[in-house]
Specification:
The structure is a homodimer.
Chain A: H1 5-15, E1 20-21, H2 24-29, E2 44-46, H3 51-63, E3 68-71, E4 88-91, E5 98-102, E6 107-110, H4 116-125, H5 142-148, H6 155-158, E7 165-171, E8 177-181, H7 193-197, E9 206-213, E10 220-228, H8 231-243, E11 250-255, H9 256-266, E12 276-284, H10 286-303, E13 307-310, H11 314-325, H12 327-332, E14 337-340, H13 350-363, E15 367-373, E16 378-385, H14 390-409, H15 428-431, H16 434-447
Parallel strand pairs in A: 2-4, 3-4
Antiparallel strand pairs in A: 1-2, 5-6, 6-9, 7-8, 7-9, 10-12, 10-13, 11-12, 11-15, 14-16, 15-16
Helix pairs in contact in A: 1-3, 8-10, 8-13, 13-14
Chain lengths: 463, 463
């Protein structure tokens, strides 16, 4: 679909001609994200370089009834950044300034296009710590992280992106600047619209500035790998660690297929005959780290770990986490397509859920490898397949349906950290209620009467 | 205003005749809360004892266009629980069950009428910890805490109520049950309506069940009192503690008038000639507590504390916190009326703000004592007055106006923890923007078309 020349002229006046992109290559570039979904080409991509231009772009889209999708790095896994056909993509990557890092008051103010890892590194230079570490942080943007409420490996102890959002300024459909939250630890002035913006996937406003909470970094940390001949023993270790009132900053698991794919991929010396491994890191005061690490080793051994190896130095620690972070790329190259889910259950249900995933995969004869955040009950069942094979994809769909049903039966959730986007809205009502959908739809309609803000996502992609 | 006999019969059928209260005494009882505002009598107070009855009450109110105010203990300080004339008050104190405390998965599910302190004590019996500790926790309810996003003394390290809300089920105006959030650490299924409910003061729905996050309790803690001959030195100590990357769980200050009123009230042996004191508690692993406590003592002395006394045992520790918690009752008995504000600034601006409050009080010849959460920049300037003296109350109003202006000039907020309610909505736009008010009004209107849910609060009390 093409856009009228006069409207393109208007956009050029706002963002500059060099930042209005309509070529076939550009439109294809912004047609997809990390989800296994068909690409959809926008009519144009805009790259505003100032706040004013960003607000004006949103207003112009609304005036012209054009669907608009804000896009950071497009790493999300649920189709949250796939545009509407003929719509507008607003790129945030030129709005990438860290406006303030305040060491006295422990906050930072950023534009939405700042890359997560760049920000985390800059914060560290100031002697502070920004804990959220989504898998895509090397390229993902903070605006995208907030829009999706990105998780990561440190959820158990440190929480997720939402736990660090102190305030968000955003543009409404008329280009008005809505200001919410504060640079103070406590703020109850008006509705918690910052809270509402988190995980709203660009459907309720377009971020202008984000205020993020920072914390002092831990003084010490220790990482270890526990190896098991059964997933049940690994799961029992997780339960025993929590029962001992220890909150590791990271508590990850890899199942046997994942271990084998990772080893095949990066030759990290993983125990390929193990049924499961846990990768555990504790952090904090050095004495606490010593105590907690020793307790964790004792617990894992008592519960039946074949071995528990503590990283003896930074290089060994790094190699453990490199192996963990290799899980997704290792699995992704196994077959042409990977459907990476993030069904999440209360952590005590994680062993049952892992067993169920294996049973479901066997039932539908699909290839599955599961890894994830054991401490959060946040599993990543990864269904390895080929999207060109319709019959296989149908079995994948049935398996995913059943995985979600099982997660909900354990009081879990469809999505721990990837978002609903376009992929999962059809299951929304099952987890929540009809009233929840209606309430959300009424709210969305009032805030965005022409339905221009990232339409078809979350509730509107249903059915 | 009276209510039709037939409607009262309908309410009786829903909640039982004994739970429909229309006597003059009942109506006066629920006409006021902790704010300095005129009481407003409702037509009736209802006390549902089941979820179903609660939902039916809300639906009936909507069908009849009756304003409805949910009320826990009525301790809020901004008029959030003052009903509309002739409206309905729904009491939550029979919905007071702790439905689940889950030690494996570190969460609890409660009804809204559970008393905060009762809950915290019950959680402790299970070996876990619920950190939020608002001043009124001995009587306040968890529903009220979430509706107001109650703060407390532990905000600096542990955050406030919102940091512990994992999910909220609530009734919409039609009596439909909206389900949001999860029992999992991570959940991004749909809009973050739990987040939206926090601090919404009963204007967007009526809580049915709340899921709260629990954490392991700290293994040790140490409390101390640092005494200063100037507020600036106390403030410099706070800045130096944060700069040393120490996050005390509590970091409170009392100014000279507050110290004197407290000592007069409870003879706790406070240094009445001091200009300021800090009450500080560090917690965590025993070794960390030892280290942090010693560092805090050294910092305070270096910055110029006259003395720093460490509590040597639990009794001494308790007496420090009893003295701090006596601040409000001690000030409240000084004059017939106390206007207790909670203007909050980034913590580095706290000394400047305390000075400004003194200057403003002098300018308007009003009696002020200030205490509060220094670590959060959350001040409680307490204006001591007599509400029957119109001329004095006018000066109080001018002083409060100027205090808010000053807080905003420091990038602070009108309200750190007391809420907007009816008292502060006229300042809302100054802190946020016109677009923020419009956005909120549109959302409210869509969710509550007849404007029955606690009308006149937050944005609707404006002007």
């Amino acid at each position: 679909m093409s856009m009228s020349a006069s409207l393109l002229k208007e956009f050029e006046a706002v963002v500059g001609a060099e930042n209005v992109m309509t070529s076939e290559v550009d439109r294809q570039t912004y047609a997809y994200d990390g989800a296994v979904l068909e690409p959809v080409e926008p009519a144009v991509a805009l790259r505003p370089v100032t706040s004013e231009a960003l607000g004006a772009c949103v207003r112009l889209c609304n005036e012209n009834g054009l669907p608009v999708t804000a896009r950071g790095a497009g790493t999300n896994l649920s189709g949250g950044t796939i545009p509407k056909p003929g719509g507008v993509v607003i790129l945030t990557n030129s709005l990438n300034k860290i406006l303030e890092i305040n060491e006295e008051d422990l906050y930072a103010v950023v534009q939405p296009g700042v890359v997560t890892a760049t920000f985390a590194a800059e914060v560290l230079k100031h002697g502070l710590f920004y804990p959220p570490d989504p898998g895509s942080m090397a390229v993902s943007t903070l605006g995208g992280n907030v829009a999706e409420n990105a998780g990561g490996l440190r959820g158990l102890k440190y929480g997720v992106t939402k736990d660090y959002v102190m305030g968000v300024d955003f543009f409404d459909v008329e280009g008005g600047l809505v200001k919410t939250g504060s640079r103070t630890v406590k703020c109850v002035t008006g509705y918690n619209l910052s809270g509402l913006m988190i995980a709203s996937e660009g459907t309720l406003g377009v971020f202008n500035e984000i205020t993020l909470k920072l914390v002092p970094p831990p003084a010490a940390q220790k990482a270890m790998m526990a190896v098991y001949d059964s997933m049940d023993k690994a799961a029992a270790s997780v339960a025993a660690i929590i029962a001992a009132k220890i909150l590791p900053c990271t508590l990850e698991f890899l199942d046997k297929p994942t271990i084998q794919y990772v080893e095949d991929f990066c030759k990290a010396g993983m125990p390929t005959d193990a049924d499961a491994i846990l990768l555990i890191e504790v952090d904090g005061h050095p004495a606490q780290v010593e105590d907690d690490a020793q307790k964790v080793v004792d617990i894992c051994k008592k519960v039946g770990a074949l071995s528990v190896d503590m990283a003896q130095n930074a290089a060994q620690r790094d190699s453990l986490w490199t192996a963990r972070r290799a899980a997704l790329p290792a699995l992704a190259r196994a077959r042409p397509t990977i459907v990476l889910e993030d069904a999440t259950v209360p952590r005590s249900k994680f062993p049952a859920m892992v067993r169920d995933i294996c049973d479901i995969a066997a039932k539908y004869k699909v290839d599955v490898a599961t890894f994830g955040h054991a401490g959060d009950g946040n599993l990543h069942p990864s269904l390895l397949c080929d999207r060109r094979d319709k019959e296989e994809m149908h079995r994948i769909e049935l398996a995913v349906d059943e995985i979600f049903d099982r997660a909900l039966s354990y009081h879990g959730t469809l999505s721990g950290e990837h978002g609903i986007g376009m992929s999962k809205s059809k299951w929304m009502e099952k987890e929540t209620s009809r009233a929840t959908i209606e309430y959300s739809l009424r709210m969305k309609k009032a805030i965005d009467p022409k339905n221009i803000l990232n339409p078809t996502k979350i509730i509107e992609g249903r059915g």
